[in-house]
């Protein structure tokens, strides 16, 4: 339940704490086979749509986030995959091309990213990790606003959230800076949130 007396940033932070706890315990309860089976194949609507896109943005899973790189292995092998890159804590998020086997470095937020010399890319579709989500495309992220700013600057890019089913909530608190997702993929289903997929 959201405390409506709290400010929007306070509401989001309380939700993040609850949803991280829920995600951590859900992932800990999964057996090894369930973890291996999750997020291994692109659902047909996504596979068909991504076939038309030259570059797809993804991420390197951190902590309990779902690992989407195996699902995107074919794209990565052809050089059509790009990962988020932060030059510093105050720098804007950009994407740099990456292929399996290429080195990754630790970025300023503790996540793994391509090194500074990897070619820049502008993904046509972006898979982004979620802390929480609703079925209308609402997203709770880590709180830095990096994806929302990138989405606002690149409105044509498809926005696909990735999360475990237990991260779903009834409604995400949103303000004008929060950009809606086009779809959400969980280990159970693909949720279409708009008319772009």
UniProtKB/TrEMBL annotation:
<feature type="binding site">
    <location>
        <begin position="139"/>
        <end position="147"/>
    </location>
    <ligand>
        <name>ATP</name>
    </ligand>
</feature>
<keyword id="KW-0547">Nucleotide-binding</keyword>
<dbReference type="GO" id="GO:0046872">
    <property type="term" value="F:metal ion binding"/>
</dbReference>
<dbReference type="InterPro" id="IPR024185">
    <property type="entry name" value="FTHF_cligase-like_sf"/>
</dbReference>
<protein>
    <recommendedName>
        <fullName>5-formyltetrahydrofolate cyclo-ligase</fullName>
        <ecNumber>6.3.3.2</ecNumber>
    </recommendedName>
</protein>
<dbReference type="Pfam" id="PF01812">
    <property type="entry name" value="5-FTHF_cyc-lig"/>
</dbReference>
<comment type="similarity">
    <text>Belongs to the 5-formyltetrahydrofolate cyclo-ligase family.</text>
</comment>
<dbReference type="GO" id="GO:0005524">
    <property type="term" value="F:ATP binding"/>
</dbReference>
<dbReference type="GO" id="GO:0009396">
    <property type="term" value="P:folic acid-containing compound biosynthetic process"/>
</dbReference>
<keyword id="KW-0460">Magnesium</keyword>
<keyword id="KW-0067">ATP-binding</keyword>
<feature type="binding site">
    <location>
        <position position="65"/>
    </location>
    <ligand>
        <name>substrate</name>
    </ligand>
</feature>
<dbReference type="InterPro" id="IPR037171">
    <property type="entry name" value="NagB/RpiA_transferase-like"/>
</dbReference>
<feature type="binding site">
    <location>
        <begin position="12"/>
        <end position="16"/>
    </location>
    <ligand>
        <name>ATP</name>
    </ligand>
</feature>
<dbReference type="GO" id="GO:0035999">
    <property type="term" value="P:tetrahydrofolate interconversion"/>
</dbReference>
<feature type="binding site">
    <location>
        <position position="60"/>
    </location>
    <ligand>
        <name>substrate</name>
    </ligand>
</feature>
<dbReference type="GO" id="GO:0030272">
    <property type="term" value="F:5-formyltetrahydrofolate cyclo-ligase activity"/>
</dbReference>
<dbReference type="InterPro" id="IPR002698">
    <property type="entry name" value="FTHF_cligase"/>
</dbReference>
<keyword id="KW-0479">Metal-binding</keyword>
<keyword id="KW-0436">Ligase</keyword>
């Amino acid at each position: 339940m959201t405390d409506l007396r709290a400010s929007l940033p306070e509401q989001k932070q309380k939700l993040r704490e609850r949803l991280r706890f829920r995600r951590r315990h859900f992932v800990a309860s999964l057996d090894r086979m369930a973890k291996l089976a999750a997020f291994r194949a692109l659902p047909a609507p996504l596979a068909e749509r991504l076939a038309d896109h030259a570059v797809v943005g993804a991420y390197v899973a951190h902590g309990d986030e779902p690992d989407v790189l195996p699902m995107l292995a074919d794209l990565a092998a052809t050089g059509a995959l790009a990962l988020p890159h932060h030059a510093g804590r105050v720098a804007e998020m950009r994407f740099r091309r990456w292929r399996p086997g290429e080195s990754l470095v630790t970025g300023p937020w503790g996540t793994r990213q391509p090194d500074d010399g990897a070619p820049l890319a502008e993904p046509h579709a972006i898979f982004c990790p979620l802390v929480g989500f609703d079925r209308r495309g609402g997203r709770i992220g880590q709180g830095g606003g990096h994806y929302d700013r990138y989405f606002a600057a690149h409105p044509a890019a498809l926005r696909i959230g990735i999360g475990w089913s237990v991260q779903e909530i009834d409604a995400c608190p949103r303000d004008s800076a929060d950009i809606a997702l086009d779809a959400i993929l969980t280990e159970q289903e693909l949720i279409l949130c708009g008319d772009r997929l």
